[in-house]
Amino acid sequence: MPQLLKKFENNQPTASKFSISTGTGLSPDILNSLLAEKFDVAFCSKCRDDNLFEFTPISRQKMVLITPLNHPLANKAAVNLAETLPYPQITFALKSGLSHQLADLFNLCGGKPNSICAVEEDETIAGLVANDFGIAVVPMMDMLYNLPIRIIPISFPKWERAYLYGDCQRPSC
């Protein structure tokens, strides 16, 4: 997000004035705040299929498997999600914008992950993997390179997370 904001700022005329407030949260909470008019626009995952919001993709993240350094899958060049099914996994909490999309991906592979822990934040999931709690499927983020983990591309199913700009379409918004 910081890189996107800087790019946006650099492309604005010097006379343009924007007030940018940042915070973190789960996509459903962000969208509820947008509905409550706490802010004008939001950046989040799409998790509602209704007509209250217009979503515009602004960035994409590939999904990757992360493992502890000593994990049996750690030396693979790429992995089919079906290969991850026997191993304990840290998954996204049901309230997360990615939870349902990842469930659909695992269904394509014929199973469900063996979830030992469901977490809301990507960074927390990565930290748990780095400390050998299990493996996880997460969006590719630069911060992953700073952790003692292996980052493995997913060969099947291929999917990217769309990071979206959301705008409320309700007349009072």
Task: Describe this protein with a few key phrases.
single chain, 173 residues, alpha/beta, 4 helices
Characterise this structure.
With 173 residues, the chain is of the alpha/beta class. Helix content is 21%, strand content 31%. The protein has helices spanning 2-10, 27-35, 99-108, 122-130; strands at 42-44, 53-68, 79-80, 88-92, 114-119, 136-139, 149-156, 160-168. The strands form two sheets. Strands 1, 2, 3, 6, 7 and 8 form a six-stranded mixed sheet that branches. It has a two-stranded parallel ribbon with strand order 4-5. α3 (99-108) links the parallel β4 (88-92) and β5 (114-119). The mean pLDDT is 82.
Summarize the entry for a quick read.
By secondary structure, the chain is of the alpha/beta class. Helices cover about 20% and strands about 30% of the residues. Strands 1, 2, 3, 6, 7 and 8 form a six-stranded mixed beta sheet that branches. A two-stranded parallel sheet has the order 4-5.
How are the secondary structure elements laid out?
Blueprint: H1 2-10, H2 27-35, E1 42-44, E2 53-68, E3 79-80, E4 88-92, H3 99-108, E5 114-119, H4 122-130, E6 136-139, E7 149-156, E8 160-168
Q: Tally of extended strands?
A: 8
What is the succession of H and E elements?
HHEEEEHEHEEE
The Rg value, from CA coordinates, equals: 18 Å
**Per the principal axes of the C-alpha atoms, what is the gross shape?**
globular
Strand content: 25-35%
Please give the oligomerization state of what you see: single chain
Largest sheet report:
6 strands, mixed
**Would you tell me the structural class of the helices and strands?**
alpha/beta
